[in-house]
Design a protein that fits this description.
about 25% helix, alpha/beta, binds NADP nicotinamide-adenine-dinucleotide phosphate, 7-stranded mixed β-sheet, Quinone Oxidoreductase, Chain A, domain 1, 2 domains, about 350 residues, Rossmann fold
């Protein structure tokens, strides 16, 4: 058994007050002692997740979490291989997922690992369609959205990890699905690859009036609004909800660069909730962790049969992690953004 591992780790060292960047992280190299206690393994990361929630946890106030502490390895979901094992459950070469953070190697107790079957689905899907984003999309839409055939479902951030799945789950539930995304390429992805009923390029509609008109034209009114972005897009949508509409607040990425600490938009247009007797509900992936198998039982067969498109965008190189996180806020990804290391 190898005694040490040349480790690389990204430490979160400075709280951003705007866009997160390399300035808020330090790349450190060290040797990881490979000696193992009973039931421990050494995990070598192969895919590391960058997610918008990382930026939420960098806010100075409590959100659904206490702020991510400074001076520790950035926490994140990882898919990797077991390279040493003192566990009866895992052998060298097994693929697993874990919440081991932005580091090449990690010593983990076997209770922290989830076994992956590479013959069932690409292992990277454990960070996307068959992982946290898939769970968010599935329970957010089915439980909070309560889709019915014929409903008009509008999804913001529709070309992203969660949004692209919500949109497809909505189609399968018989909804008429319109996606909102930034740029012509993403809109083409929504209509041609995901076969949605329409797409709105929000970047092409600069004013509130223009965006509202585009949403009105594309939807004719909204039964379910699955919101990943908040801000001006949500301002444009809320006045267009229909009677008994369901609004699902999954995320507000347009506000994460400081807008959560010093919000410049209050709750707006909420009188329409009254006018239409609508409901608005926040949803959180972790509330459904213990129901993961329920989601996998439905969605994994769709992934295997190709009935669900699970686009992934890769960035190569461990040193790219902070830049990759930043790129989420510039819309560079289609589907799930992963760093391959
Ligand atoms: N509640 C939960 O448990 C939960 C779980 C997972 C994710 N989320 C939330 O869901 C949302 C999507 O997450 P994801 O992991 O699927 O990320 P993602 O959508 O794959 O990536 C982020 C996307 O957000 C869009 N975006 C960035 N800045 C924007 C802005 N100012 N206005 C409009 N769109 C903007 C970009 O797409 P465009 O090019 O289209 O702008 C970008 O590609 C995030 O708000 C995230 O926090 C919540």
């Amino acid at each position: 058994m190898q005694n040490t591992y040349q480790n690389r780790q990204w430490f979160y060292v400075k709280r951003p007050d705007g866009r997160v960047s390399n300035d808020h992280y330090e790349l450190r190299e060290s040797e990881l002692d490979g000696s193992l206690a009973t039931n421990e393994v050494i995990l070598r990361a192969r895919f590391i997740s960058v997610d918008p929630y990382i930026r939420i946890q960098q806010h100075e106030r409590n959100t659904y979490d206490v702020p991510h502490p400074l001076g520790i390895v950035q926490r994140a979901g990882v898919v990797g291989e077991v390279v040493a094992s003192a566990s009866p459950l895992y052998q060298v070469g097994d693929w697993v997922s874990a919440y081991s953070g932005w580091q090449l190697y990690a010593r983990c107790h076997h209770s922290e690992l989830t076994r992956l079957d590479p013959s069932a689905a690409p292992v990277s899907t454990a960070l996307g369609v068959l992982g946290m984003p898939g769970r968010t999309a599935w329970f957010g839409l089915t439980e909070a959205g309560r889709p019915r055939p014929g409903d008009t479902l509008l999804v913001s951030g529709a070309a992203g990890a969660v949004g692209s799945l919500v949109a497809q789950f909505g189609k399968r539930a018989g909804c008429r699905v319109i996606g909102i995304a930034g740029g012509a390429e993403k809109c083409k992805f929504l209509t041609e690859t995901l076969k949605l009923d329409g797409a709105i390029d929000y970047r092409a509609h600069k004013t509130h009036e223009a965006l509202s008109a585009a949403v009105q034209n594309a939807t004719g009114g909204v039964d379910i609004y699955f919101d990943n972005v908040g801000g001006p897009i949500t301002d444009a949508v809320i006045p267009l909800i229909k009677r008994r509409a369901r609004i699902i607040i999954c995320g507000a990425i347009s506000q994460y660069d400081g807008g959560l600490d010093t919000p410049d938009l209050g709750p707006r247009f909420l009188q329409h909730m009254l006018f239409q007797r609508a409901t608005i509900q926040g949803i959180l992936a972790r509330d459904y962790v213990n129901r993961m198998d329920e989601m996998l039982a439905v969605v994994a067969p769709w992934v295997k049969s190709g009935e669900i498109v699970f686009q992934e965008t890769y960035v190569d190189g461990f040193e790219q992690l902070p830049d990759a996180l930043n790129s989420l806020f510039e819309g560079k990804n289609i589907g799930k953004l992963l760093v391959r290391v």
